[in-house]
Every structure is written in structure tokens, then in C-alpha cells.
Amino acid sequence: MKNSLKTVIVTGASKGIGKSMAETFADNGYNVLINYNSSHDEALKLYESLIDKGRSVRTFKADVSKRNEVDSMIDFCYKEFNGIDILINNAGIAETKLFIDISEQDWDKMMDINLKGVFNCTQSVLRHMISQKSGKIINISSIWGIVGASCESHYSASKAAIIGLTKSLAKELGPSNIQVNSIAPGVIKTDMLSEYSEDDLNALKEDTPLLRLGTPKDISSCALFLASDAADFITGQIISPNGGFVI
Q: S-S: 182 plus which of 39, 139, 236, 245, CB 3.0-4.6 Å?
């Protein structure tokens, strides 16, 4: 018998935006599968904190760039919760480099995690969503996937590809009652900003009409809405919580 709670998989859920999503969905009555790869300690700490609050959560270690690990994760989630309703493709990496200095290895790693990871997780979960004629897929892109970022061309390219994939899948999966949308966050206060100086961060704030950087909660709240019944008629859209940084 299917679990009465809806189930969400959040990839890259041990830190930053992914962690906030796991917490937000768990606090709002969802079964949550916390995916992680290298950040075992952070994932365990998150899991324990949510279990202590009485939330319905599990963890699963999987490199999203490896299809066999992804398939195992999807199968585990389905068996644990007797269903999968929402997939949030959040796992990703970033890197700042001049284009001329990007190695083939740098490029391949970026695409393997940021783009192939979305392909692997989405195709694997669709084995269940298409047959059940329902589901929601939320792909995390970036404002740099919309406008491009200097010295982050491989990152920007991977995030732009996610936007194209989102729009294409929304058209293809609509007849199966599966909504596919993308969130393109602006500048969000996470570990990805650790290499920025205080002056750089202040400059980014000044360039944002709302005069602040975003928080992981700003993004997880958007994801919670897109996953809800209130968003059943929204598909193929790119929603960008960015404080007006990109308009």
C-alpha cells in the first residue's frame, strides 16, 4: 500500500540549498530521501536532526553521475516509501576559471555532475512516474544559466542546458501528467560563495534591487510551492528567485 505522505528525493541534500529543501519538505509532511555523495557527516547530522523532530526521512549515498548508483537510489526510495512523487535535481558543483584555462577534465566533471546527473536521476525516476501518471520534477539551474557568467563558462553552459532540458521534458511529459519546472537561483548565501571576499559580496548586494543576498530558504520555499497541488498547472517554467539581480 502506498504511503499516505508524498515522497520527495532531493539530490545533493547534505548542505546549502539542498539541506534547506530537505528540512522544508520534511517539516511540511513529506517523506524525504536525502541524497549525498562525499558529505557523509553532514548528511548524517541532517538525518539525525530531522529524525529527532519525528520527521520521515532516509539517506542514500549515490554519485548522480553514475547511472547504476542512481538506479539503486531510486529503487531504494520506492521500496522504503512505496512511491516517488517529486524529484528535485539539486546536486551540482561550481568552479571559477578563465575559459582558456578550463581543462577537458574540468569540463567533463562539470557536465557529468550538473547535467548528466539530471539526466540519470530523471530518466530513472520516470520508470515510476510515467506508469503512475503523475509526478513533479524540479531542476535547479542558476541565473548564470540564463545570462551567463564571466569566468564560469562551463558552469553557465551546464545550467543553461538544464533549462533547455526542462522545457523539452515539460512538453514530452505533459500528457503523462508530470510537471517539469526549473528554479534558477540568484546569488545565494551558501558554501559556493566562500571564495568571494567581503567586498565582492557587498558589491553583489548593491547590484541586487532588494539589497540582500538570497538564502537557501528563499529557494526551498519556491520548490515547496512548485511541488504542491497549487502548482499543478505550471510546467516548463523557469522561476528565478534572485532579488531582482536579473530582470
A: 139
Helix residue spans in the chain (DSSP H): 16-27, 40-52, 67-81, 104-111, 117-132, 143-147, 153-173, 198-206, 216-227
Distance CA 137, CA 88 (A): 6
Cα separation, 68 vs 74, in Å, equals: 10
The distance of Cα 186 from the centroid of its chain, to the nearest Å, equals 14
Per-residue cell: 116: 548528466
Q: Which stretches of the chain score pLDDT less than 50?
A: 1
Q: Give the torsion sign (CA, 35, 128, 126, 70).
A: positive
Read off the pTM: 0.97
How far is CA 175 from each of CA 128, 131, 135, rounded to the nearest angstrom?
15, 12, 12
The residues carrying an active-site annotation are: 155
Using the structure block, give the residue that is written with the C-alpha cell 510546467. Answer: 235
Amino acid at 54: G
Alpha-carbon distance of 182 to 166, in angstroms, equals 6
Distance CA 207, CA 7 (A): 38
Residue 118 has what pLDDT? Answer: 98
- Alpha-carbon distance of 9 to 137, in angstroms, equals 10
Across the beta sheet with 7-10, the strand order is: 57-61, 31-36, 7-10, 86-89, 135-140, 178-183, 238-239
Superfamily of domain 7-239: NAD(P)-binding Rossmann-like Domain (3.40.50.720)
Question: Which residue in 5, 188, 176 sits closest to 92, CA to CA?
Answer: 188
Length of the chain, in residues: 247
Instruction: Give the residue carrying C-alpha cell 553521475.
Output: 65
